[in-house]
């Protein structure tokens, strides 16, 4: 297998863009990624396009990517559509890596895009519910104690938060601290959907969503796109790119009836592939679709001992300037969560961090970055997880 690098990365801002088309968003992100790499569209051999909700929200099925790349210069290049819940984008990167590493093509582009906002808000909620087993919906709703009238995934995360609090010293104040931290990080990111100064008291007093979760603890519905250009180190050097090494990209699937093994097992495989351990990681982007998930994942990635994530958070270690900053982009809770673009958006942040291009949110001396991305629901855990590790050249 050949070594693979991310030679260029780009993304739109994440937000609410009712008047923008998929072509507009994809065109912006792709142009930025190609320009960043120094490549031209005609050098691309294969495109992987990730999207999760266009069918239910916009009625676009089957060949979503072939329509979305119109105007990018990638028309006519072989394109494979990828759908894998919230891990769709990181799955596209995984497949693009495989194509280049195996020598199928020399250059592959991974693109993710989503438009979750619509005048009929129920369509976005339908996308989320569609990631559950449709034959078991009544059973799942009964298990979660929900009538399915809101975001059922926040009910899932509320249960995760309850389980986590029962086995650790975590409190609602800790969940609020994660939201406070990530909104402060997001305020430093011009492409984040939200960001600003919050207090723990303000987060706890905000509108209740499910269980211990309040509105600022929950990722917003987002629109946006992100793209990455993958190639070999030799080709990137010829372009004059400033690449980062793609050290590991690993996917995992949850098993029915099993909770808590998916992310740890996926992470162990990623560390083995990269030849690294948790102690080597300098910066993390993790899937905080709800704030408590950041604490849970911090432990599942081995960044601290079991039950130690709250102490890590309270000490400031996961804040910018701390020992192991987590979600310097603002994470899903502040930067936004356009499902098909989320995983690639995490890697755009890490690429920029390892190049020292993040300005006031720069993690000093960052050499190794890790992204964790998960989604869907198999019951009682997620259906899919991805761990990607990148390193500075």
From TrEMBL:
Protein name: Thiolase family protein
UniProt cross-references to Gene3D superfamilies, sorted A to Z: 3.40.47.10
Source species, domain of life: Bacteria
Residue intervals of the Thiolase C-terminal domain: 263-379
Residue ranges constituting the Thiolase N-terminal domain according to the UniProt record: 4-193
Alphabetical list of Pfam families matching this protein: Thiolase_C_1, Thiolase_N
InterPro entries for the chain: Thiolase (IPR002155), Thiolase-like (IPR016039), Thiolase_C_2 (IPR055140), Thiolase_N (IPR020616)
């Amino acid at each position: 297998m050949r070594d693979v690098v991310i030679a260029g990365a780009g993304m739109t801002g994440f937000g609410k863009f009712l008047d923008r088309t998929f072509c507009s968003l994809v065109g912006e992100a792709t142009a930025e990624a190609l320009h960043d790499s120094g490549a031209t569209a005609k050098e691309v051999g294969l495109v992987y396009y990730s999207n999760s909700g266009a069918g239910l929200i916009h009625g676009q099925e089957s060949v979503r990517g072939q329509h979305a790349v119109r105007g990018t210069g990638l028309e006519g290049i072989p394109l494979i559509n990828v759908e894998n819940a919230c891990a769709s984008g990181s799955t596209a990167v995984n497949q693009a890596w495989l194509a280049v590493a195996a020598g199928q093509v020399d250059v592959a582009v991974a693109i993710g895009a989503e438009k979750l906002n619509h005048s009929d808000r129920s369509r976005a909620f339908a996308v989320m519910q569609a990631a559950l087993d449709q034959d078991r919906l009544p059973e799942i709703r009964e298990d979660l104690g929900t009538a399915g009238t809101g975001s059922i995934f926040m009910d899932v995360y509320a249960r995760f938060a309850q389980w986590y609090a029962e086995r650790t010293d975590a409190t609602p104040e800790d969940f609020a601290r994660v939201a406070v931290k990530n909104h402060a990080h997001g305020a430093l990111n011009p492409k984040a959907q939200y960001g600003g100064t919050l207090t723990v008291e303000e987060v706890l007093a905000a509108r209740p969503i499910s269980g211990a979760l309040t509105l600022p603890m929950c990722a917003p519905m987002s629109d946006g796109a992100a793209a990455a250009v993958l190639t070999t180190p030799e080709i990137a050097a010829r372009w004059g790119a400033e690449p980062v090494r793609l050290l590991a990209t690993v996917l995992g699937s949850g098993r029915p009836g099993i909770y808590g093994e998916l992310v740890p097992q996926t992470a162990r495989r990623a560390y083995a592939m990269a030849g690294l351990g948790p102690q080597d990681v300098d910066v993390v982007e993790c899937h905080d679709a709800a704030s408590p998930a950041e604490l849970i994942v911090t432990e599942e990635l081995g960044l601290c001992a079991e039950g130690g994530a709250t102490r890590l958070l309270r000490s400031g270690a996961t804040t910018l300037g701390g020992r192991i900053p987590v979600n310097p982009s603002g994470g899903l809770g502040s930067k936004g969560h356009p499902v098909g673009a989320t995983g690639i958006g995490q890697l755009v942040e890490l690429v920029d961090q390892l190049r020292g291009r993040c300005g006031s949110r720069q993690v000093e001396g960052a050499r190794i970055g890790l992204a964790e991305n998960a989604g869907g629901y198999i019951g009682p855990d997620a259906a899919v997880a991805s761990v990607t590790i990148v390193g500075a050249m």
